[in-house]
Amino acid sequence: MTEKILVIANWKMKLGLQESKDLAAVYKKLVKSEAEVIVCPTFVSLDAVGKVLAGSGIKLGAQDCFWEKSGAFTGEVSVSEIKETGAAFVIIGHSERRKYLNETDEIVHEKTKLAISAALTPIICVGETFDQRQQGAKDYVLINQTTKAVEGLEIEAGQQVIIAYEPVWVIGSGQAIEPQEAEAAHQVIRQSLFDLFSAETVKNNFRIVYGGSVDGQNVHTFTCLNNTSGVLVGGASLTINDFVAIIKNV
Ligand code: PEP
Fold it and tell me: Model pTM?
């Protein structure tokens, strides 16, 4: 069976509750696709968007989770509550959280561990900043972030883990990197996984996607790469015409 191409829509903190429900309703109507489409609204909108999308085949993901199961952690959201909404995916370690909320590789690891224990599929974001790239540290950053996120984790048969390669300097810029560059980065990430898990586990349980200014024009240049299972889309997932163009050209 050929694997479906993943298209992950990260709505960030760009929409209110009603706007999220409205956009979800339009997705439900217009996003007809062979791709595996996952929508990630804010926590507040998660349950409502899940209800709107019910029966559409479009899947639901959260943008984050907390690293403890439950307890006195005011303002945080647990993996079990995320699951209750029907979400099956959770983005972990997005560069915006690493930057603005000081999420460390250790935090990313703890969140990934808990997400997996709850049978959620983590979408772990890794990627270099512009400075790191200028310093020639890109591969080092990818190896380090990937390794620290998943090292030592038990990956049961059937458990999926998605690694999203997102060059930080490209996110929201409107200018994606060259597909060959993404392909090389994905190879580095895959090699890191081979150092940690059996070849079978890497093949069966891990998928690598590209994120960073994906649009309807460039999406196919990424999804046609051999070692790429799909795309993570921010800005272009917020406008239905742009998203439909992505889905059409995937
Ligand atoms: C993102 O938010 O992860 C992202 C890839 O955003 P954009 O598509 O806008 O670059």
Answer: 0.97
